[in-house]
Write a structure and sequence with these properties.
2 copies of one chain form a homodimer. By secondary structure, chain A is an alpha+beta fold. Chain A has one domain (13-102): Alpha-Beta Plaits. The first copy, chain A, has 3 helices and 4 strands, in the order βαββααβ. The two termini of chain A are 19 Å apart. Chains A and B meet through β1, β2, β3 and β4 of A and β1, β2, β3 and β4 of B. β4 (94-109) of chain A pairs antiparallel with β4 of chain B, so a sheet runs across the interface.
């Protein structure tokens, strides 16, 4: 697991906040999540992502894109769409997606 | 821990994405996090928040506000500012804040 956060991006950029409730660790989920993380790297304008999941609880992934073209390309990706469909049918109790334009950002690093 | 996600908000609204790296479970952190969660409920236009933390890893909190006035009130809150300062001095390895305007949102609920 990486401990490096996405940081230092210059606004404006876009973010997709994906929150989800997943009961336990369903079969195939981790492999699909890893594959999606690999696939999104090739989307033009993809800037990075951060993920966290409380054990047995809520998971949050935040992905960052330079522009709406990148967002749209990722949303339309056929393998991504198939994974979402499989997630609704087999994995998720619930999820929410918030697509937003980042107007301001800042950070802190002890290092 | 709640398993209910914030859902069904009508865009436009604002979100503050707070990602952080916290080494272990430092003393006083959980109490301060609970207090901040209590305090933010009183901010006009606060719509809710979702949180997740991978054990020993990255934490993400996403808070939602109806307008920029709510964002500003929360940012200027004196007790919140003191907690942030204490967090920089004693707790966080790093953090990032992304303030964004939500343009589109949707969700799924099995229930």
């Amino acid at each position: 697991m990486t401990q490096r956060l996405v940081a230092g991006l210059e606004p404006p950029y876009y973010t997709v906040v994906f929150t989800s409730v997943l009961p336990g660790s369903p079969e195939g989920y981790a492999e699909t999540a890893a594959r999606m993380n690999e696939l999104v790297q090739d989307v033009p304008g993809f800037l990075g992502s951060d993920s966290a999941r409380s054990p047995g609880g809520i998971g949050i992934t935040v992905a960052y894109f330079r522009d709406t073209e990148g967002l749209d390309a990722w949303r339309r990706n056929a393998e991504h769409q198939a994974a979402q469909r499989h997630g609704r049918e087999h994995w998720y109790e619930s999820y929410s997606v918030h697509v937003a334009k980042v107007e301001r950002s800042y950070g802190f690093d002890r290092g």
